[in-house]
Amino acid sequence: MGIPLTGEFRARALDILAGRIAPAAARDAATVVVLRDAPLEVYLLRRKATMAFAAGAYVFPGGSVDPRDADHAVAWAGPSPAEWGELLRAEEGTARGLVCAAVRETFEESGVLLAGPTEDTIVADTTGWDAEREALIDRTLSFVDFLDDKGLVLRSDLLKPWGHWITPEIEYRRYDTRFFVAALPYGQRTRDVGGEADSVAWMRPQQALDLAKSHEISVMMPTFHTLTEMAGFDTIAGVFANDREIVTIMPQVVEVDGEMRLDVAR
């Protein structure tokens, strides 16, 4: 079981296990599985081959937390940051940043915006906001200022916590990532590409798994695991009705018959 480690990563794993080098610190990050029904599909984007992390892999929208995501000025509706802190087992400020990053990154990478003019409405159409998306992507615009300019409030109630993955210690870039799920809001549509992607696709979870197993697409371990879980549902309602316990997962290096492998450890 697990993924064999060879070459550079095998040597790095041995150095870390021996205490010769320290693993990189993991940055807080958020990933959102955007869903649509009839049939149940997930939104995936392929990261550009030039990216330093997960180049060429199909992933869900997401990214690291911007320090400004934790700004208390973010207009907020739904469960409070304190309530999210309990759900995510994180400090309130960290939870605020994670939820805000989840909404911001989803908008940046898909055009889907989980926000509305009031606490019980959702913006119907984000067409024409590409300039704002680009400004968010290059960090010349903060998410709090974007929401303020548009007169919108973040809808934290449109997210459901789903998973918690920490990048293994052998990686040079590491992320402490909370996974969320969200339904594609009525009337909104996804864009063709985001700042870090060169193509996007809506797929049935099992279709994506089959393509990954046949090596037609590349997916990382957390994505494969999450797709496997999504494949067990027929509808968005079923996903949101799932009474889920969040378990932290960090793949770890193990030795199997003299071979170094990366395997899931909970």
From TrEMBL:
<dbReference type="InterPro" id="IPR039121">
    <property type="entry name" value="NUDT19"/>
</dbReference>
<keyword id="KW-0378">Hydrolase</keyword>
<keyword id="KW-0460">Magnesium</keyword>
<keyword id="KW-0464">Manganese</keyword>
<keyword id="KW-0479">Metal-binding</keyword>
<feature type="domain" description="Nudix hydrolase">
    <location>
        <begin position="25"/>
        <end position="225"/>
    </location>
</feature>
<dbReference type="GO" id="GO:0016818">
    <property type="term" value="F:hydrolase activity, acting on acid anhydrides, in phosphorus-containing anhydrides"/>
</dbReference>
<dbReference type="InterPro" id="IPR000086">
    <property type="entry name" value="NUDIX_hydrolase_dom"/>
</dbReference>
<dbReference type="GO" id="GO:0046872">
    <property type="term" value="F:metal ion binding"/>
</dbReference>
<dbReference type="InterPro" id="IPR015797">
    <property type="entry name" value="NUDIX_hydrolase-like_dom_sf"/>
</dbReference>
<protein>
    <recommendedName>
        <fullName>Nudix hydrolase domain-containing protein</fullName>
    </recommendedName>
</protein>
